[in-house]
Every structure is written in structure tokens, then in C-alpha cells.
Model the fold of this input.
Amino acid sequence: MQLCKSTGFLAAVPITILLFASPGAQAEVFEVTLQGFWFSYDGQQNMDIELTISPGDTVRWLWVEGFHNVVSGFPGDGNEGELFLSGPPIGEPGTIFEFTFLEPGVFGYHCHPHGDFGMISFVTVIPAPGSVGMLVAGGLLCGPRRRRRPT
Ligand SMILES: [Cu+2]
Done:
């Protein structure tokens, strides 16, 4: 709605709400396992993992074996653990840590004890189709009002 704020074009409001509530934005859970020096997902490991999700989806980290934790950020970024942190490293198989990603972006994470051994990965969050539709609809609705008319 920020796009339309200056125009006062109220018709955009119900359309935005409608598209936010559109189907297809069903949240999913993606499970990444922790074992050895590896995050694993779908047969891929660490930085080779291609995990692309939508805002609202959840990543679940499952401890299979070893002494690990899950820390947001790439090692040395200076923002480690700011977005999420599973806590101190633990070695209990079956432990689960979950985080729901709400914003688009590329989010690195690592295991503190094993980051130096390459136990580093990332999640890519791209806007759901409904969100894109909202932006397009908002642009179409707001566009004519923003254009400068010849005098
Ligand atoms: Cu680890």
C-alpha cells in the first residue's frame, strides 16, 4: 500500500487484501538434517544445497548425529545469530529446530562448531506468486494516478 499512499487511491485496498488471501500460498516445511560435518537436504550438502522456499515457509533442522547448532548468517558476517539461533551446540539425535522465513532474500546459516569445516549453507526465499500478483495489481492501479498529465 505504500505505493498508493500519495495518490489516495482507495480502490487498491480491497484488491490487495484479496490477493494476499489467494490460495497457492500454503506454507510448507522443508527438512534439513545435521550429521557429521554436513547439512543435508534432498541428497545435497552444505553450500551445494539448493533450497528455495516462499515467504511463510519453514525450515526444520533435524539432528541425526553429532554435536551441532544452527546459527543464522555466514561465519564472519558480523550478524551471526541475529535472525535465528538454535542455542548452544547439542548432540541429541532427534532434536529439531525450526525457523519460518517471512522476508525474501538469501539467508546463510552455519553450525558453530563445524563452520570452519564447511558446515555452512543457505536458504533462498522468493516471493510467492500471490505476492507478485499483488505488486503487479498495485502498480497497475496506482500507475495512471502517478503519471504526470500534460497541462
Ligand atoms: Cu555441526
About this structure: The domain at 27-138 is CATH 2.60.40.420 (Immunoglobulin-like). DSSP finds two helices and nine strands in the chain. The first helix runs from residue 12 to 20. The first strand starts at residue 29 and ends at 35.
